[in-house]
UniProtKB/TrEMBL annotation:
Species annotation: Niastella populi
Cited InterPro entries: Homeodomain-like_sf, HTH_AraC
Keyword Transmembrane helix: no
Keywords: DNA-binding, Transcription, Transcription regulation
Domain HTH araC/xylS-type: 15-116
GO-annotated molecular function: DNA-binding transcription factor activity; sequence-specific DNA binding
PANTHER family given in the database record: ARAC-FAMILY TRANSCRIPTIONAL REGULATOR (PTHR43280), HTH-TYPE TRANSCRIPTIONAL REGULATOR EXSA (PTHR43280:SF2)
Protein name, per record: HTH araC/xylS-type domain-containing protein
PROSITE patterns: HTH_ARAC_FAMILY_2
């Protein structure tokens, strides 16, 4: 198994990063800010992350962020713009950038996702 060729420290770092991302999907601070102890080995940790998790840190974070957005859409107490803002999308193209990222990860637009979830509840 590939994990056996990685150092225990790299595997531990990957697990810590993944656990943080899983628990805090809306946190958009950089990994180097959140985990400065890994900065000097950042490339090694990122490569180990991709080996262990099967996707880059960025892809993993984006997936977790869009899963959190999908949960917010399911509840539907918030508007699409509010959800996009909570997910860190700002500026004039925030809505379209959020929609594009959501569709790429979840396979459909936020609007269609919300409609499908509403249909499933009824």
């Amino acid at each position: 198994m590939i994990e056996h060729t990685l150092s225990k420290a790299a595997v531990q770092a990957v697990e810590e990063l993944a656990q943080f991302i899983d628990s805090n999907p809306l946190n958009r601070k950089s990994i180097s800010t959140l985990f400065p102890q890994y900065y000097s080995n950042r490339n090694i940790i990122y490569a180990a992350f991709e080996t262990i998790k099967g996707r880059s840190v960025k892809e993993y974070r984006t997936r977790k962020l869009m899963e959190a957005a999908a949960n917010m859409l399911t509840g539907r107490e918030q508007t699409m713009q509010q959800i996009a803002y909570k997910c860190g999308y700002r500026g004039p193209k925030a809505g379209s950038n959020f929609t594009r990222a959501f569709r790429k990860v979840m396979g459909k637009s936020p609007k269609h996702w919300a409609k499908d979830m509403k249909r499933q509840r009824t």
